[in-house]
Amino acid sequence: MPRLSYRKALNRALADELARDEEVFLLGEDIRVAASAVTAGLLKRFGPERVRDTPLSEQAFTSFATGAALVGARPVVEFQIPALLFLVFEQIVNHAHKFPLMTGGQCAVPVTYLVPGSGSRTGWAGQHSDHPYSLFAHAGVTTVVPATPADAYGLLVSAIRCDDPVVVFAPAAAMELRAEVSDPVPVPLGRGRVHRSGDDVTVVAVGHLVHDALAVADELAGEVSVEVFDPRTLYPFDWEGLLSSVARTGRLVVVDDSNRSCGIAGEVIATVVEQVRLHAPPRRVTRPDGAVLPFAPALDRAVQPGRELLRQAIAHVSKDG
Amino acid sequence: MSGADPIRLYRTVRLIRRFEERAIELVRSGHIVGGIHPYLGQEGIAAGVCAALRPDDVVAGTHRGHGHVLAKGADPGQMMAELCGRVTGLNRGRGGSMHAADFAVGVLGANAIVGAGGAIVTGAVWARRRRGEDLVGVSFLGDGAVNEGMLLEAFNLAALWRVPVLFVCENNGYATTMPVADAVAGSIVARAEAFGIRASTVDGQDPAAVHAATAAALARMRADGAPEFLEARTFRFDAHHTFEHAVRLDYRSPEEVARGRSRDPVRIAGSRLSAVERTAVDADVEAVLEAAVAQALAAAEPDPATALDYLYASGLTARTGGG
To answer: Using the beta-carbon criterion (under 8 Å), do B122 and A64 form an inter-chain contact?
Structure first.
């Protein structure tokens, strides 16, 4: 079976959608030369009208995409750095997201915002290492964080075809993954995936942390049976899928690369405890409150959710009750 | 380029004038909640610009946007219903004064965020021209917007990518209460010229002059695809927002207001008609607005159960806030 890298999966999704739909075009910085590699080869194949390099004007080109979408285009806007989303939060949340309701349904804004390399890139320090997916979930913008090459392909394709704005976070820590994928297919938005079945604890893991959760589940296999649930889409969240898992296991841990306050882990726990009587209080493993990733590698790692903290959390919820 | 029909220009400025006066009455009577930013005094700009546009051209307006929406051809009854928050409104009561939009006539929306429309209309025009349509766009903006970085970025994109957008700066002298002299270094037209955008200034109180300047700009734009910038000097006759009727803000002297109001676009446009013509237009406008107000007030208010309708074009249903 052919091996597909996460990065190549994104590239193939863009190429397939550009080929399928004339209304799809790409906007972003240094995308002609494919500085992030996800647009490699696309300029040559689709030309500069559809692979548009932009000046460093994130706010204007994000709203340019909104305008194009209002009249039926399907722009994909690439941001090389996750923190650029802070710069265009207004353009996405206050404009793209609000136009359909504010106009009483006169329009749609089908824009995809793609961040190839979200979260820590080790050594890129404070202003290049954020993972602000919870912010967009909070705002109600469709937000996906694919964990695998197949999901990277399938969710990006579905994002581009979606009639609403979608933010696609491709975690830097997942970008080099490879997997055997014969024929990648669209993956529906809002549908989670159980990567590993288990009976004792449900671990909800977001993005690249799915792989840490799977590794920990393997290690603990003799002691505790861990189910690893990957929501894939954070908003809208697959509550049905998660609740059916937790209803069986009765125990919940969430591992999430968000800052702790108002991060998606808090929402997951709140929603579950509103509806399921757990055997033990749930736990979450997150970045600290107000995290700024420090430069030195040991400090960078120290504020990211890691396997040791996940093991402790699983032990904790397994013990109680 | 022939001049605009004086009767049409007069009808538009008169319609906007009386629409705003009726809307202010409805603010006072409590039928319009939240208030409005009256376009009184600036009517000549929307009327002159939109008279030069084709139906397929698109415009993006501002928070002071009623004139743009009406001049581009939206139905006054649906517009008034929108201001009153009724289901028959342009936006089905979901947008209100600052977000009134009518995509069917090319109004991509009034916009509550200063300077936001420029990039949006640039993207819309670019995307439709890519399909072979030869439309142009207009981004209305105020003098306050020329200090918004996002708008300056939009100038750059429109110029670089040759997107024919006419940026119409309605310079009424004040960003809310901030005088232009205290806010704008250099000059307003020089902002556009710095990006290689052709820029000119026109008397915004004279709708025929605005029309002529716009028509000349659009002819150049349709020929070569480049954007242009038009500064229309104007004066806001009324408050920044109707809240100011209750809270007097001291930033314009009575003398300045009297001087500004002495050049009235409705009178200027009206002086080009015969008394008979003027009377006929006035009567027609009164009838239109009488019907607009009556229809708006008779229309149903939206059902609270539909508050989240239209939130997602994809059909996604949001969780409600209940316990």
So the answer is: yes
